[in-house]
């Protein structure tokens, strides 16, 4: 909990000073993402380590507009993205609609979505196999992977765990096109990331019958 408390305190500093000033290893992390994510249009991230840094890393590394999907119950995060990302407003999970999707498809923007951020009030959900159990996730976010595949847009999974006090990106290979295959591959990747740093993972959704 002390690690998590320190992370959220740094978010306040980030609003004032920017990630380079408050996140150790920022320049190295940007370079690592630049080599792996320049062709990616959809990033499926995870609530592991410095998860809220992913949109900032992606935008700086690719030089493209980044559209993070966030929940409207987190005003600190919304403010952070509005101040630190070009052209500002994040997409809201509870209001994500066709207009948001058209805006993404009509540009070279990158959507950053956290499939297992499932707050109370998320209306449509499905279960994702992970960690020997089933994690409740919003239906619309895994479905973005299927839409990206139909448009031949590359989708990757990405996490940014803390390793020895520094932000350390982990970017997976392109996910397969069929939605069930993409969700299954994301779940397997999540298993590996969480198993390597279980103390840094927080599931906002419900994990059922997990053997952890």
Topology:
Layout: H1 2-17, H2 19-22, H3 26-36, E1 40-49, H4 54-62, E2 66-70, H5 75-84, E3 91-92, H6 98-105, E4 110-113, E5 125-130, E6 133-138, H7 140-150, E7 154-160, E8 162-163, E9 166-167, E10 170-171, H8 179-196, E11 207-208
Parallel strand pairs: 1-4, 1-7, 2-3, 2-4
Antiparallel strand pairs: 5-6, 6-11, 7-10, 8-9
Query: Residue-averaged pLDDT, rounded?
Result: 82
Tell me the total number of β-strands: 11
Distance between the termini: 19 Å
Q: List the uncertain runs.
A: none
State the helix count: 8
One letter per element, helices H and strands E, the order comes to HHHEHEHEHEEEHEEEEHE
The fraction of residues assigned to DSSP E strands is 15-25%
Helix amount: 40-55%
Shape: globular
Structural class: alpha/beta
**Strand numbers in spatial order across the main sheet:** 3-2-4-1-7-10
| Computed CA radius of gyration, to the nearest angstrom | 16 Å
Largest sheet: 6 strands, mixed
